[in-house]
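Re: [help] complex structure
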Amino acid sequence: MNKGKIIWLMVILFLSYTAFLYASLPSDSGIISTSVYSGKQIWQKNNCGSCHQVYGLGGYLGPDLTNVYSTKGETVIRSLVQYGTSVMPSFKLDEKDLNDLVMYLKSVDASGKSDPRSFKINYDGSISQ
Amino acid sequence: MMVPSHNNIIPKSFLLVAFVLLFTGLSFGLIGALQYVMPGILKDGFSFQKVRPLHVSSVVFWIIFGAIGTVLTYLQEHGTAKNYSHSLLKLQFVIFVITVAAILISYLTGNFGGREYWEFPPYLAIPLIAGWLLFLINFIRSVSSFKNQPVYFWMWLTGIFFFLFTFLESYLWIFPFFAENIIKDMTIQWKSYGSMVGSWNMLIYGSGIFLMDKISGSKDYSKSKMAFGLYFLGLFNLMFNWGHHIYTLPTAAFVKYISYAVSMTELFIFGKIIYDWKSSITTAQKYFNRQSYMFMVAADAWVFLTLSLAICMSVPAINLYTHGTHITVAHTMGATIGINSMLLFAFASDILTAPSSKFIRIWFWIINISLFVFWISLIIAGVYKSIWQMSAVQQPFGNMMRGLHPFFVIFFISGIVLATGLVAVSVLMIKRSFVRATASRNDLIANVQ
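Output below.
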């Protein structure tokens, strides 16, 4: 088989895999609230990911926030965002933006657990929760 | 094939802008490192929220601008760039420079899009896509035949194509269908990023093979079955191994199993490096006096170290310990500084025809030693964070970070030495290249007179 054909074959395989993946990933159509969606925008517009992680992905200066809603609670989140800490600046969001951000973090929390201690290592080197 | 100097102005300009971006990236990198050593410093005026994207984007664009300038130059030397459009090239350069300046300004003013790597507002991606399309068009129209091309040609072509594809894919989040579910959004985000890194590596590694051919004066390797075999293996990994970024994300299980299996094929590359060890050292001794080759040898050593780490991190059971820790940062630094930047210095030394210099050789060793210290300090910090993450009774996050302070100090000090070395080598290369160009021009004028 010539090289061009191998590359085309690989590209077709890649595109098929991509299409299959898009179709098989979970969807929240019609369920997600406007508040969660706006909260995600607030998260991005304030570049929270430069210091914080979600599922271990993001910055390293602050803690992972995947399950902060269930571990620290809404009041602590509100207080930290509004007043900051010795390392984190205060963001002084208005009430609506703050509510939306909290709703977003609640939704992230409901999506799963990121704590590595909650995983089990299998005999083949894979992991499961 | 020699390239007329007037045809190389824009490719060289890409390289020069790349160096400016490297200096910018290093400056913000040091400020960021200082914020780890002195937590809270500049938090109100110039917080890490601004510093990190300024550092990351500058460094990513150093790699991208450097890769574009190199591919455009080597494409002409390769001899296929007959129908190359210099107006398209100029347009691409202007679009890229203006957009990157706008991106850095957007960070300084706190205007974010907030996505990893590409933290600028999404509308700034439009000119980048347009500029990259011009690059692809120029590449394709300059090719007279796809037959019997060496491996680096295919690496450049697939690198350009996949960068465009993955960059577009990384913006699917602007559509509610992809953004509405956090797991779906993050899966596609890291699918695109994983493959995107592979695509710029294709541009850089392809140029590395071109330069090796040029130094050895033979195209035997770049047309060999082994070279194509490794290229297909690299492309296969680019397409399917990205899932190792998201082993702990509750996404489709098949993504993780496929990535785990595909990532393990990199063991073949690892084995080949060990198998070829002796002959690599013989070749290195033969060409080490050439400045560009010296940087390629350093990149080879960093490939070995970074690949070892990457293969370990691709095993989910190990990844569970390293994920979210500074070991991941060490891997990124090894790849971007140790491999990509060393290769870009090799290309710059060749393209800018910077004469060999004793000072560059001294700085070369300082850079690599300080990078090793920098890399090790991150790995140790990562091990400590990993122990903290897995401990049954977890100390508060702030206490853990205070425990890492000594490693951050080493990371910061070695970072200063490393940045000084990278700037010194860049400045020496650019300066000596200009001195040489001016001397050649004066000789030419004297001969004409």
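The two ends of chain B are 28 Å apart (CA to CA).
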